[in-house]
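Below is how a single chain appears once it has passed through the pipeline. First comes the sequence as given, then the structure the pipeline wrote out for it. We keep one example in the README because the format questions we get most often are answered faster by looking than by reading.
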Amino acid sequence: MIKILCKLILLICSLPLVILTIPFGVMSFLEKQMTSYEYFFAFGAHLVALFPGFVGDHVRRVYYMLSLEYCHPSAVISYGTFFSKRGAKIQAYAGIGAYCVIGLVEIKESVRIASKVSITSGLHQHGNSSNISNGEGEGTNRQITIGEKTWIGEGAIVSASVGSNCIIGVGAVVTNDIPDNNMAMGNPARLLPTSNKPS
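Resulting structure:
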């Protein structure tokens, strides 16, 4: 009962911050409808990353529900974490730790992401050797998917899709897609020989 009461008090205390956040969410939504730019979205994403604790989690949830392609109300986005691409999607009961940077990614149900994880928008978002050498530097974004009930360890860098029911080890660097029901560790991440078993 005391825990519920404390959460209720914090929720009420967060209402002024939520009200301040709504204009940024609305501006981001209008920006999406009228242009291809993400200036307002990026400003709001950096701003809401700075609010700590339960109040901050609530503020971030509201902002991303207004501004991302999709954000389920049950998702938890911790302090210091921000999304760099508004095309990202967060499904139900997903939890993202502190100080993460998330690109163009769909995070499926019940995914758990530890702190200081980077999920990029693919391997070529800043171009490749051919267009960097001639000065163009045009990159391509790839939609990354993190499958249901997958766990991603502290400090991992993920640049490829990860299947459902997977575990990505601490500090792993994922450059190739990981199939369902696997564990991967290392730099570059390699599948553990005994891990390819259905859960």
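The chain has two domains: 1-67, 75-193.

See the next section for the split statistics.
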